[in-house]
Amino acid sequence: MLDIYTLGEDVLRKKAEKVIEFDSSLTMLIDAMFETMEESDGIGLAAPQIGILKRFFVVDTRKQNEKIAFINPEIVEMSHEIGSYEEGCLSIPGMYYDIDRPLAVTIQAQDVKGKSFTIQATGLLARVVQHEYDHLSGTLFIDRMEEGAREMLVKAYNRKHKKRT
């Protein structure tokens, strides 16, 4: 299993760079990310969350055909219709908050072999894609909260995860 970086670690706030090499090491890393995500009971995991500043993430909503690796993704269209739904993050374990996001997105990306594809995502897949896509720019779901609510959530997280001496 891979280590998941958590709130406060610099790598989560940096912008990821484009993937250029599509080789067996990328495939093995993506397989390890799926395994780590599943062992952690998550449905999405972005490369910056495991300390790699490259533009890719994996998603598995546990629905048929929704276990997907997105490499060099670009969201090219978002619906005007917005919905609120509770989000959490493997990098901020145990913390959840309702976040507003577009209900549908069109995303273009590459697969592990470098082949381009386009998906029109709705529902949970659209939400997870947007959440993971944010990680590639150093944005966390808490950045989409109002300032007061974000401060309270971060304080609660810090209390809950305070290291015992």
CATH architecture: Alpha-Beta Complex
Shape: globular
Question: What proportion of the residues form beta strands (DSSP E)?
Answer: 25-35%
Instruction: Order the strands across the largest sheet as they lie in space.
Output: 1-2-3-6-7
Terminal CA distance:
27 Å
Number of domains: 1
Structural class: alpha+beta
Radius of gyration, in angstroms, nearest whole number: 16 Å
Mean pLDDT: 96
**Which CATH class applies here?**
Alpha Beta
- The strand count comes to 7
Largest sheet: 5 strands, antiparallel
According to CATH, the homologous superfamily is Peptide deformylase
Low-confidence stretches: none
- Sequence of secondary-structure elements: HEEEEEEEHH
Count of helices? Answer: 3
CATH topology tier name: Peptide Deformylase
Instruction: Report helical residue fraction.
Output: 25-40%
Quick structural overview:
With 165 residues, the protein is an alpha+beta fold. It has helices at 24-39, 123-135, 147-160, and strands at residues 44-46, 56-60, 67-78, 82-89, 92-102, 104-110, 116-122.
Which keywords apply here?
3 helices, two-stranded antiparallel sheet, 26% helix, 165 residues, 32% strand, alpha+beta, Peptide Deformylase
Structural topology:
Elements: H1 24-39, E1 44-46, E2 56-60, E3 67-78, E4 82-89, E5 92-102, E6 104-110, E7 116-122, H2 123-135, H3 147-160
Antiparallel strand pairs: 1-2, 2-3, 3-6, 4-5, 6-7
If you had to describe this structure to a student in words, what would you say it looks like?
By secondary structure, this protein is an alpha+beta fold. It has a single domain (10-160), classed as Peptide Deformylase. The chain is built from three helices and seven strands. The chain has helices spanning 24-39, 123-135, 147-160; strands at residues 44-46, 56-60, 67-78, 82-89, 92-102, 104-110, 116-122. The strands form two sheets. The protein has a five-stranded antiparallel beta sheet. The chain starts with 23 loop residues before the first helix and ends in a 5-residue tail after the last helix. The mean pLDDT is 96.
